[in-house]
Amino acid sequence: TLALAGENGAGKTTLLKCMLDFCAFDSGKIEINGVPSTRPAARSCLTFLPERLTPPWYLTGREFVRAIMAISGESWDEHALVSTFVDLDLAHSCLDKPVRTFSKGMTQKLGLSACLLSKKSLFVLDEPMSGLDPSARVRVKNLLRRLKNEGKSLMFTSHSLADIDEICDHMVVLHRGSVAFFGEPGELLDQQGENSLERAFLKCIESNSYGR
What we know:
The chain is of the alpha/beta class. It has helices at residues 12-19, 61-71, 78-87, 104-117, 134-149, 161-167, 185-192, 197-210, and strands at residues 2-5, 31-32, 35-36, 46-49, 122-126, 153-157, 170-175, 178-183. The strands form two sheets. It has a six-stranded mixed sheet, sandwiched between helices. The protein has a two-stranded antiparallel ribbon with strand order 2-3.
């Protein structure tokens, strides 16, 4: 479980876009399970949730999830869908409502449901807690822990260092497009001599700013 942390504009989402072949990069290379990221086969193992999910406005919740499952090669499973909606506290009635009527939080839960039902081994999530209320955040964190315990790989961006501390095995601190730290959250605490991940993060990026 890996988190990308950094200030706004540090390069978190850009890194994900390069990884997913949404944009080109000038040098270096990215491989997913040994396959170059520019090849579609590299993405066959993963599911992706953008920070601002905008499903086709004319689809219902059920139609959107059905389409994502079909793209993922998964057969339709109504029971699994309803169970996932319950886990995320998403009302059953949302299945038959147009997604254009969904709030930001409801749309985020719908996207998470589609990711979960795609049954991939790697989850790439850009700010998965975006737009969620406190109750939903707890539910999503429980689901992420469950995926982790099931042996799934998780890679997500987050502005919440508390979430990173709770869930992640490793973290990358990006600062101005470069890696300022990579390791376990506890290692960042030790490195910066702090017992708060927030203060350790701040000292990390400040020391990298002064070093430039």
